[in-house]
Prior knowledge:
By secondary structure, this protein is an alpha+beta fold.
Amino acid sequence: MTRRLRAFxxxxxxAVLFALPLIAEIVGARLLVFRDAQITHWPxxxxxxxxxxxxxxxxxxxxxxxxQPLLANPNAVLLYPTFxxxxxxxxxxxxxxxxxxxxxxxxxxxxxxxxxxxxxxAAAFVSGIVFAFSGMVLSxxxxxxxxxxxxxxxxxxxxxxxxxxxAGRRGAMVRAGAAAGLALGLQLLAGxxxxxLLTLAFGGVLVLAEALGAARGTRLAQLARAAAGxxxxxxxxxxxxAPLLLPLRAVFPMTYxxxxxYSERASGAAAFSAARAIEWIFPRFGGNPDLLGGGANWLRAxxxxxxxxxxxxxxxxxxxxxxxxxxxxxxxxxxxSSALAAGGILALLFAFGFSLPFYRLLYSVEALRKLRYPIxxxxxxxxxxxxxxxLAAEVLGRRRTGRRESAALVAILAVFAAGWWAASPGGPxxxxxxxxxxxxxxxxxxxxxxxxxxxxxxxxGALAVLAVALLLRRAPLGEPGWALGFLALLSSFSWxxxxxxxxxxxxxxxxxxxxxxxxxPGRLYVSPGLPRFDLEALKAETAGGLPRTSRVARIVVEQxxxxxxxxxxxxxxxxxxxxxxxxxxxxxxxEAADAxxxxxRDRLLALYGARWVLxxxxxxxxxxxxxxxxxxxxxxxxxxxxxxxxxxxxxxxRAWRRAALSxxxxxxxxxxxxxHGDVALPGRRDEDPAVAxxxxxxxxxxxxxxxxxxxxxxxxxxxxxxxxxxxxVWRARVDGQPAPIAVxxxxxxxxxxxxxxxxxxxxxxxxxxRLGVALQAVALAFAVVAARATRFARVG
Length: 796
């Protein structure tokens, strides 16, 4: 068997084994719905696809609060190559495949990186399996469209940068730089800046190590060549990602992240904790996300309500045991393994966030305070652990296991036995977990599920460890990595596959019951208190068990939770996701509404275009009239309507001026302000209108997501308002001449219009995107020409 075939067949087997349990998701019969997958990524892609079907570029998401940038939103992942799958496959299948393909791509990338670092095929196979099927990568690959792609590109970028550090001749340097630029550019297009920064840090260390490893007399020249290659790769990556980066740069100053610096608590949210190390041995100790109740992560309760961003942090029992066995041998430890171990531990220390002093160094840099979730450093720890597991597989194949390894086997089996005993009914874990379980609706079922998860992990882990011991009995094995890799893959399915929470696609495609009640112009405001439901209203699939999380996917659609009903044509006033309000001004008025009295809140809702409100029947909305009520999952909800919603494009004949944004908000939520005919604008000082409002007639010609036009005939000067969240990227013209745009009513767009008849146009600026596309085309052409030229030079 040739080496190429020997490498291809295991990869094919991995793809088949991973795909078999997920056939329904691959063909699109079921849709991934865990966390961001359903709430943001699926609606965004449906809206973008609908815009493309109409021959329009999806610059603005008109369904999101006040019209938010869509193409420029890195979380939307619209400029990434997998979006093209939606043009040839069923939408559900294309959407799911983005996630699943990147798990496999992460496997291939870690395998290539391991080979670059000198490992054999079998050891590299182990590294690929451990990284791709780790808790970190699978948690990303089941919920976060941007993070899953960025994480999958991490080892590919690192492998290319290793080549940059090693390249000796100019042709090799050009090829390595082009490969690194392509990988980094695609990672940037995935839209996860924190992971890209981690990639650059990790790759930079690899480049430096390779360059310094050159012969003593050539190190300086090698460093210079490597630096030139890195600069070229960076420029190529920026050019390839320009269609995203340039539009993002144009809107970023007016985004929430552009204007806001996270507090220490927010910046350090979702840090790794020492308690989570339990998941290294018992991967489902933190809960099963596919079970309601059992999916309410235990560690979240222990951490006093801290955010759970990464559901599982396990490396896998098999690779962890293999690594422990190899670490007992002196021949395992060398410069390479020691460096990887040190790098993994250093990244882990940063992953603890503010629990340790290291993360505070990053927090002191203002630009880095815009990033969150220190547990992202754990991705580097996972990659280092995967590479170490590959090295361990090589070492263990050299000779028979000895007494120290046997002692380690007995010790780990004792840990699993202790876990089995502790999870017995009435045992230590019951006593520890019972107070936490009391906060659930069914404590008895909760405890039973928890015990089952821990005992299941104990049994699976013990069997996997025994299987490893049997594999390593013969000496020398030569290449035990193939068997160890497949064993690690199969054992990961018990806790990895439940992360891919999905629901029947047909059920989610059914319009919500309230849809016929909210047709026509105007936006919907959904109470931040939703979704709410009673577990008793959901039936479990098995007697004595807990209902599935996938059942909630339909509930959030029926409750119209933003943005789940956007694919059905519903337009929302605000989003409930704390990171979802992309525009700074929109986020500010949203928070103001939440902090207002019921009457003040309703005035703000009406001002920004709310026609309907969906809330629990106990929530007061004095300025909206009840239209219908219904019960969803045990909760009574009421749909209310504003009988006179403001128009999306409207005339304001009376202007107020306020020097501060807070003063503007106080004004527009008071009963002094008329939302139908007034406008509040920024000013050097507070000024109330001194003249009567100027009347006007308005003939709207076009109102779209990213543009609007109208003819105004006014008796006096006034302003034309367009209900879109303010960004400086918006442009306006009056009678064909550019006109300045002001922030209207603390959020929307306004342009001054003199008396008489005038044609007014609003348009989202497309020039950054066009320039980005041109730069990307030049970069791709350069990469192709450089690759071909250096290839011919090498052949010659």
